[in-house]
Write a structure and sequence with these properties.
Layout (H helix, E strand, L loop, with lengths): L4 H7 L1 H4 L4 E4 L15 E3 L21 E4 L1 H11 L1 H21 L5 E16 L5 E20 H58 L13 H11 L4 H35 L7 E4 L19 H11 L1 H22 L5 E14 L2 E5 L2 E4 L6 E14 L7 H53 L9 H14 L5 H35 L4 H5 L46
Parallel strand pairs: 1-3, 3-6
Antiparallel strand pairs: 1-2, 4-5, 5-7, 7-10, 8-9
Helix pairs in contact: 1-5, 3-5, 4-5, 5-7, 5-9, 5-12, 6-7, 8-10, 9-10, 10-12, 11-12
């Protein structure tokens, strides 16, 4: 189909002058970490040959990383910032969970309180007195103040939020791996396109004979000779020259597309966007994608596995449970009391002090001193029930939380339907791209895989007939165009086949560890003869097409409870 990799190196040599080659390697057992650079193993490779397609004259050496798809995925798990952010979200949820579990514990304050009063004050009997006094308290002041409904339901909410964040981390990891794989496939697609353009240009312009062309040179040298000898009109040479210009322009566009794809992949892997990423796989063949047993499983098995394994379904289910706990808290809030506990323990003293009596009048000592110092404790417990805005506020909160819960449930159903659709779409893309490869391959290759199919055979025969004067050069030009079109379609089918297999793994919710390390990937469970078909888990919310709001039993005072 294509030329060996040497042809691609020639096509990109203008970008690769003076470059060294490196292989990125990551230990499969290494734990992911954020904001880190993966270790790089340097491997010196031969210098690239002179430019053949790009024609670039740059003299600046560029770094080239040689890596496989698996190495790119492992590097992404180590350094991608989206995955690192998802890890921090989990840590935030863990801290929120710990705070919710500690809601029952008191707040402890240590300090001192000094009070100074001068002038008139009214006693409990209503008499107005002219009193100067001061006091000082030093001690510990534990206080507890919380809503009992919050204390009961907030830990449950935080537990579900933590579960959702963990599932969200898996979802982000899988989405990132898909983005890295898509970028890697775009790079491989660029290599295939460049190789196809170079093969077409060789058939048009080569001065070397080739058995592929029936031991003939390229079309342009042949037709140039024909025109010089008067065996072909000049306009036919001009048509071939126009075709050469078109193909060279296509070659420049192909290199541009490849370079942009490399920069995008470098961004996802946190590499310098100026480096060039060189795939180590044979791009003339389908790439090795792990999980081959899944590509032959039945659609029913794939759908059931996806529903049980997709992290976004688990994330949505946890969010549904969190909104349900909030709804329960809103229903019980007016029925459960708020709790206030205050306890003061420390030393207390003040002035003035009574130093004697004259008739019914106390004789006070000097003000401004702290006298009669001693221990003091105060303990206070309070329970109170609160109706927000005469209960209308509580009813509005309950209805709001109920609407939020229904929204989360609908999102979960929507996600479930999207998961099933994605599995079906991935399977369809896989089957159709595989079928296209077979159809197009039958036109390129013979039964032994040699480039001797009808397309190549027709090209060779047209070159032979043209040399014998039995056909016009334009017929050979049509054969070259036909070969280029079939090669392009075959390259697209190869890329779609690679992409559809990886998309199927992501659509199934395959664990990231199994994708990065194929040895850890689970295998399909074979269905025994006569066994009933598997069903979806009961905890996955399933709502009818016409969604109806469920009925909740009424509670006293119009507030609804479980």
């Amino acid at each position: 189909m294509f030329h060996p990799r040497q042809s691609i190196r020639e096509a990109l040599a203008g970008l690769l002058l003076g470059a060294g080659f490196f292989t990125v390697g990551v230990c499969p057992g290494q734990q992911p970490h954020s904001a880190a650079t993966a270790p790089v193993l340097a491997e010196r490779m031969p210098e690239p040959p002179p430019p053949a397609l790009s024609g670039s004259t740059t003299s600046q050496p560029q770094v080239v990383f040689r890596m496989s798809l698996q190495e790119a995925l492992r590097l992404a798990v180590l350094v991608n910032l989206d995955i690192a952010q998802a890890q921090q979200v989990v840590k935030q949820a863990q801290a929120n969970r710990e705070r919710a579990l500690a809601l029952w514990l008191p707040n402890i304050g240590n300090g001192a309180t000094y009070v100074d009063h001068e002038g008139r004050i009214q006693n409990t009997n209503g008499n107005v007195l002219n009193v100067n006094r001061n006091s000082l308290f030093v001690g510990t002041i534990p206080t507890v103040s919380f809503s009992l409904s919050d204390a009961l339901f907030t830990p449950r909410v935080s537990e579900q939020i933590l579960a959702a964040s963990r599932a969200g981390q898996q979802r982000v990891t899988n989405e990132t791996l898909l983005a890295v794989a898509e970028s890697y496939f775009a790079v491989v697609r660029g290599f295939r396109r460049v190789a196809r353009v170079e093969e077409t240009l060789e058939d048009l312009t080569s001065d070397q004979v080739s058995a592929k062309r029936g031991d003939s040179k390229g079309l342009l040298p042949i037709i140039t000779t024909f025109v010089k000898e008067g065996d072909a009109p000049p306009q036919e040479q001009a048509r071939v020259e126009v075709e050469v210009v078109r193909r060279r322009d296509e070659g420049v566009s192909a290199v541009q597309e490849l370079r942009v794809a490399m920069a995008e992949l470098s961004r996802l892997l946190r590499l310098d966007p100026q480096i060039l990423i060189w795939p180590t796989e044979d791009y003339t063949q389908p790439l090795p994608i792990p999980g081959d047993p899944w590509f032959h499983a039945s659609l029913e098995e794939l759908v059931v596995f996806a529903i049980n394994s997709r992290p976004d379904l688990a994330e949505n289910q946890a969010q549904v449970q969190a909104t349900l706990e909030r709804l329960r808290a809103a229903r019980w809030r007016p029925l459960l009391p708020n709790v206030i506990v205050n306890y003061n323990a420390g030393g207390f003293g003040g002035s003035p002090v009574i130093i004697g009596r004259r008739g019914n009048t106390d004789i006070l000592g000097r003000d401004g001193r702290i006298d009669n110092w001693g221990g003091r404790t105060d303990f206070e417990v309070g329970l109170y029930w609160r109706l927000q805005n005469m209960g209308f506020g509580n009813d509005a909160e309950r209805r709001e939380q109920r609407a939020i819960h229904d929204q989360a449930t609908l999102r979960a159903v929507q996600t479930r339907e999207r998961v099933v659709a994605q599995v079906v779409q991935a399977v369809e893309l896989l089957e159709r791209s595989k079928e296209r490869m077979k159809v197009l391959g039958s036109g390129l290759f013979d039964s032994e895989g040699r480039r001797a199919g009808p397309v190549y055979r027709g090209l060779r025969l047209n070159f032979l007939r043209m040399r014998l004067g039995q056909s016009r050069p334009l017929e050979t030009l049509d054969s070259i165009r036909g070969l280029s079109d079939i090669l392009e379609s075959y390259a697209i089918a190869l890329t779609e086949y690679d992409r559809s297999r990886f998309r199927l793994l992501i659509a199934l919710g395959m664990p990231a560890g199994g994708i990065v390390n194929p040895q850890c990937m689970p295998l399909p469970v074979p269905r025994t003869e006569g066994a009933p078909p598997q069903t979806t888990p009961a905890e996955i919310p399933v709502m009818p097409r016409a969604v109806q709001t469920p009925d909740y039993p009424e509670a006293p005072m119009g507030f609804k409870t479980e």
